[in-house]
Amino acid sequence: MPDFHDSVEYLRFSRNLSRESIAHEAGISVSRLNQLILQRQIPGPKVFDRLVRFHGLSPAQRRHWEDLLQPSRPLVSADELRRRLIAHRVQDHLDVLDQHEILGGYLDPLQTVLMGNEVLHRMMPGLDQADYNIIRWMLTPAARDRVHGWHGELLGLARNLRTALGRYRDDPRAQELFHTLRKDIAFRSAWDGTPMQVTYDLPRATPMYLRISGTSKPLALNLEINEYRACSEVLIVHGLYSTPAIAC
To answer: Could you give the CA distance from residue 24 to residue 18 in angstroms, rounded to a whole number?
Structure first.
């Protein structure tokens, strides 16, 4: 699971540096750095800023560190979130999207599909067998067959998950999902190969490409992901593509 103190040590090892050299170059004492790593103390603002500058962290990585220094948040259960969505009559919205062959779904922070329309389930065969979790589905044979550029998409999902786990790392459901995913060798490789890589921005700059029966080229699916205003714990996703290629 993401951890501030472990990431400080990872950055040191990745650059093959001693704690003494980091402390000297960053402008902090060796004893203070040892306290952060060995005694797992929380850095003050000045020490935090100096470590960020020394390691050249991006704004997203800095934000991830800030999340890790805050208490872990509790996750609202998937059942409770579904009840809230039903109360807001989101099924009516999903039905309209189906009529126009637009993918639609509502996700929790762990990328579990709380509610999705028929197009979404047609695009992601076997989602129910992966407990409706997109990352777990991505590790299935069905996803490997369906998703063009599968490995790159898995890396992106790992970056998104790291962001969520930074916020909810102590929640039992978050820990259960993470340890379940760690049993898969492909996920372990994606996760361990992208340390400190996080994604906070919701818009995707590039489409996802899917292999669809009856088409000669992968289908470009342009995804739009936004926070659901009526429930801050929920994300809403829309998928736009060439209707004749997918309608069946």
So the answer is: 10
Laid out side by side, the sheet with 113-116 consists of 113-116, 103-107, 235-240, 219-227, 208-210, 147-148
Taking only the tens of pLDDT, the chain with its 248 residues reads: 999 999 999 999 998 999 999 999 999 999 999 999 999 999 999 999 999 999 999 999 999 999 999 999 999 999 999 999 999 999 999 999 999 999 999 999 999 999 999 999 999 999 999 999 999 999 999 999 999 999 999 999 999 999 999 999 999 999 999 999 999 999 999 999 888 999 887 667 789 999 988 778 899 999 999 999 999 899 999 999 864 444 43
172-181 and 150-168 helices cross at what angle (nearest 10)? Answer: 150
| Sign, Cα dihedral of 129, 132, 136, 137 | positive
- Residues 188-197: b if buried by 16+ CB within 10 A, e if exposed: eebbeeeebb
Cα atoms in the Cβ-side hemisphere of radius 13 Å centred on 107: 23
The two tokens of residue 21 are 């050299």
Contact 223, 207 (CB under 8 A): yes
pTM confidence score = 0.89
